[in-house]
Amino acid sequence: MGIRLELFIRILLSFVLGVIIGFWAIWAGICWCLQFLIILVTGKRNASLHKQIEKWFKFYVKSYEYLYLLTDKRPL
User: Fold this and answer.
1) pLDDT of residue 3
2) Are 46 and 35 spatial neighbours (Cβ–Cβ below 8 Å)?
3) pTM
4) Domain residues of the chain, as ranges?
5) Distance (Å, whole) CA 45 – CA 32
6) Distance between CA atoms of residues 19 and 26, nearest Å
7) How many CA atoms lie less than 13 Å away from 45 in the CB half-sphere?
8) Per-residue pLDDT reduced to its tens digit, 4-38
């Protein structure tokens, strides 16, 4: 694929990824708050909430690596 076409695709994909990351960040924030309360009460982490937050963070990092031209591997 040509360099200019790839850059155009990155620009379009940045809007889509921004929306996905934004809504998923709200969900990750809710999970983080629940995780915080669970740790305060029980002293232990909830594995499923931890996995949700970890998945969001990994996707966030992969997306911004692609959008900041650090890698050519697409996050989706």
Assistant:
1) 81
2) yes
3) 0.81
4) 3-67
5) 11
6) 11
7) 9
8) 888 888 889 899 999 999 999 999 999 999 999 99
